[in-house]
Protein: Diguanylate phosphodiesterase
Amino acid sequence: MPDSGGRTATAGPVPSTAADEAAVDERRFRVYTATVLTVGLVTAAVVSWWLPFEGSAMLWWITPVLALAFLLAEQLGINVDVRSGISWTISFTEIPLVIGFFIAPFEVVLVAHLIAGVGTLLARKVRGRVLYNAGAFLLEITGAFAVAGLVKFAVGGPGMPWLAALAGTLTAPLVSTLLALAAVRVLRRRMRVSTALRLTGRILVVGFVNASVGLSGYLVIFHVPEAWPLVLAVFLGLTALYWAYSDLLREQRDMEALSDVSLMVARSGQQAAARPASRADDFGRGVDVVEWGAIAERIKDQLAAGRVVLRLRLEPTDAMRAVVSGDPLPAEDTTADDPLVRLPGAHVRHFRLTEANPEVRGALLDRGAQEALVVPLRSANQLLGIIEAHDRLSRWRGFGKSDVQLLGTMASHLATALDNRRLLATLRHDAYHDPLTGLLNRPGFRQVAREPLRERLGSVVLRIELDVFSTVSDALGYAWADRMVIAAGRRIRDTLGSDVPLARLEGASFAALIVERTPEQAHEIAECLRAELSAPYPVDRLTVEANAKVGYASPTPEEESADAVDVDALLQRADVAVRATRGGEEVRGYVPSMGQIFMRRFQMVTQFRQSVEDGQVSVHYQPKVTLPNRHVQGVEALVRWVHPEFGKLDPDEFVPAVEAAGLIGVLTEFVLEQSLRRVRKWLDEGLRISAAVNLSVRNLADEEFPRKVVEALERFDVPPELLTFELTESGVMSDPQKALPILRELHSLGIVLAVDDFGTGYSSLAYLRQLPVDQVKIDKSFVLGMGTDLGDLAVVRSIVELGHSLGLTVVAEGVEDDVARDQLEAMGCDVAQGYLISRPLAEDRLEAWLLARTARSPGRHTETVLTLLT
Structure:
């Protein structure tokens, strides 16, 4: 904010942490500007009427010289930096002003000062405060002439007394200082009273010296014309003294600026360390644009530049991002093939429009700059960024040697600080992120989720489990399993968005935090996640089928109101919800009753053996018929458990628990004995119906299992071809070295082997050819969907053709309507099984079903063949 009294106070833009505060400050300053300008115009009119000119008309020719003197005094200013975004410039405007009291009328001095002041602002491209400064110019000159007029009337006598001219001249810098201090108050910047008083005193001292020199020169020249060389010598000496003082001040301010920039980077690093360890890690890994803008603003103020551009590359693979302080860049900012950016070494380059080659001249014109200082920020031959300073404002001569030295030293300090910041950020990133996926780890998730859970309602923690991880790692190795985990993490990130905190906890287990969601919305998001994660994963030349389970939990109202949400507790609840998922219901929200789920499973495992002995566990049978002749070919044995406390238990709930507890052998032996006993009864009735029993991967790891099967067949005197073992590809391939020898031994006995759920596991011809199997069972998901999905229809047709090409019997599960049965029959499918034929039935109901829905006819040997009635 310049003033005609020789002080220029320039209020640079001070970065704010909130855009609304900056807008409020701008509105306040506009009102202040209007007030200053209005008061200045009114007082100028009053003073013009009150103080008529009484000097000699012979001296009016010197008026243009007076305007030139004001302009020269403004250009020879010496910057004095003051905190709070305000700087003053010591100039020599008191000298032409004090002479103007004697040789020119008030209106001429006012116009000359306005032309010099506004012209200097426009030359320095300070356009944002022109109206305010114009008002300040008016008040400075009118105030000076008003005080001079009062002193003149007090003293009396013709002409302008020297005492009145001296008093009026000192009034101008005082008015300028008071206006600037008021502007600091309006802009809500802080300045101590002692600092303001000290600054005002120094300005008055400098103004008094300047005014005394001008007054003495005028008196000497006009009374002793031969003494003007002496006055000129005194003026030159004073100028040299001010210039030396300016250099001393500059060195001091340069040291302060270096210290400020280093402290700002270090302080922002401390603030970044206290922030949540989110993956987004704002521009600069925690340093946001406002903080970098403050650093750029500090450099701009120190260099008195019109614009400073910081181009920073915080990551080696990132493109440079620009932060601009001062005038905005006139064109779209780009660093591609920019000659000002392609800088060798680490020294400062000074470019001038008048001296540049065509390529550099074009780059300067694109920036709207006449000159530029450019220096790279380097560390260990790595380019971290670039600093550009455009168009020095304080002197007409442009950037000098001291500016080049300052910017070079500042760039060295800033590069070192940035390098340290990057190192600390890397260490912190590694401490809170998973090295495989780059997602948050458990400590990082705990830190990131703590604040949203405390401050925002409707928070939900999701726990996602990809349950094929251990199978893939065992079958293909950890490298392929890791690839699946990376792919799963990418799918979750794409589904939830980049702003959602996401962590890999362990293995193929993930956690995410969503906020401001209702339980219904959280369930929809979880369903979407499960569907996305359950899609097949291409692994090299294989396509691995996967299944995902999602559990979610929310803070209780009491926890939210008490501001005491425990992240670990929510993760544990979400984990309980995951473990509570069952087949067909892969997404569950936590409810308090789930807290007893582990106790329930413990009871099931400990009571299972006794329940088998007590008859609580039974076997149901689901018939299978051949196509197209509709003969009842066999049944599949399915276990059922009616618990005295828990009631009917779903097999998907208790079978995994029994298997994990090592009791699957007991269950398989029980189902096998019940099935063989049923087959024996049918044989005694002249019916040749086979029974299929499901095998677990743990059965195939038991070397004694074939011997136990042989003993059971002999005990019930059942031909081995009437016994079928169903197994999954994933179960076999989890440990093929153990499973394949056992399967070959069973197959050599004449037992029928079937691949269950075909199409959802490895499902490749290479693996299928390794298995000594006789049947493939098409997974019911494809059969159910083939009526509406052409893709499922194509899959079913392909499996039928593949099975027949290998000489295998093809069984279709999930046949629930006539259309599906007819389509399968048209494809040449051999056997059908599903609700269209019958649901799983207990023994007595199965017997009734056979009597009611089949017709008996003699077979080729002596057995009776059951044909399904239509």
